[in-house]
Amino acid sequence: LAGGQGSRLGVLTSKIAKPAVPYGGKYRIIDFPLSNCVNSGIDTVGILTQYKPLELNDYVGSGKPWDLDRTNGGVHILPPYQGQQGGDWYKGTANAIYQNLEFIERYDPEYVLILSGDHIYKMDYSKMINQHANSNAACTIAVLEVSTEEASRFGIMNVREDDTIYEFEEKPKHPKSNLASMGIYVFNWDKLKKYLTEDEANKNSSNDFGKDIIPAMVGAGETLRVYRYNDYWKDVGTVDSLWEANLDLLNPKIDLNLSDRNWRIYSRTTGMPPQYISDTAAVENSLVTDGCEVSGKLDYSILFENVTVEDTADVEYSLVMPGAVIKKGAHVKYSIIAENVVVGENACIGTDPAEVGADGWGITVVGEGVNIGDNAVVGHNLMIKEDVKEGEKI
To answer: Which residues contact 48 (CB under 8 A, 6 or more apart)?
Structure first.
């Protein structure tokens, strides 16, 4: 499922779909579920696109970086389309799958795995599928234990002692359990087809897996089980979570090893030259991708490909996406700088939370292609969509 708008990411998704948002210096978010599929032995993948799909479509292409350019199976881009009975935009997660039942039927599968295209994690889906196959369940749902305080932010699965699900609650105020749905499902194909068809016929349905399909199956007495997952997983649906998930790569206490040769995260690289770190640069605990030129100071930050940080510029606790230029004397802290932004000389972007206190503080985001004028000052918790003039304070 890769068709969501990702509106909570603001200017970062004004021109691209959320799964195409850059991550970790050289990746896009979509790289994670695609790589997980390949590493799990799954080689027939449909990517359902809708919102601003051009860059995502170009990025995935034939699927070669993920070994999904195959004659039989492989990767397929599945946008909404016009059929004999008319056509419509995907109305919800369930409707999106329903509109592509013919695609699934081509392969006559025993099981169907449904994933979100906007999560950061490494997971062996074959273990979940094997558990499902051996449990006689109609559906298996991956869950993650969260704190009691966080549980009200998620769809919560209430289970019996044998891990069968007896109730699903969407963002409950008083949760009975701390098992949060990860939005990863394994269905028996015949059951999935049945409930999607019935849901589509229900004019009052919101056509959503969490709100409609899962409750309907529980209500009908179907056997649903949870699959417990206990490694790193991050939903990067907000500016804060995207910023945190990137900087988690620099945290030695968090195990998201992207150098693991046994479970590679594949991406479409662009053949940039090696990064250049000048003799005036000071780089500490950061990721610097190919094609970057760093002459200034860099601390606890991630530079995506082809970024320039000029002499005396200072970047701290920030993400700087492909092609951006941070000019001499500029200061960027606690910010996300989108692709091809130019931050002018001696400009200041973002604020350290210690300077203003936690109340009202937040990550500042500068949208793609925006120019920040020389000596401009842009404060905290802002979303910058248009150019900022020289010397302007926001």
So the answer is: 1, 2, 3, 78, 79, 90, 96, 97, 100
Q: Are 206 and 92 in contact (CB under 8 A)?
A: yes
- What residues contact residue 285 under an 8 Å CB cut-off, 6+ apart? 250, 299, 300
- With a cut of 90, say whether residue 274 has pLDDT above it: no
Q: With left for phi above 0 and alpha for psi between -120 and 50, is residue 171 left, alpha or beta? A: left
- pTM for the complete prediction? 0.87
Task: Give pLDDT tens digits for 172-192.
Answer: 999 999 999 999 999 999 999
Q: How far, in Å, are 242, 338, 393 from residue 235 at the CA level?
A: 8, 19, 33
The pLDDT tens digits of the residues spanning 280-316 come to 999 999 999 999 999 999 999 999 999 999 999 999 9
Please tell me the distance from the alpha carbon of residue 111 to that of residue 108, in angstroms, as a whole number: 9
Structure tokens at 273: 């030259």
Contacts of 74 (CB under 8 A, 6+ apart): 43, 44, 45, 62, 63, 68
Q: Is 192 helix (H, G, I), strand (E, B) or coil?
A: helix
Q: How many CB atoms lie within 10 A of CB 83?
A: 9
Q: Angle at the Cα of 193 (from 87 to 89), degrees rounded to 5?
A: 20
- Residue 203 CB: number of other CB atoms within 10 A? 5
Place of tokens 């690289």: 269
The tokens of 142 are what?
């991956």
Question: 383: which strand partners?
Answer: 365
Tell me the C-alpha to C-alpha distance, in Å, between residue 394 and each of 205, 228, 338: 44, 46, 18
Distance CA 244, CA 319 (A): 10
The residues facing 27 across adjacent strands are 23
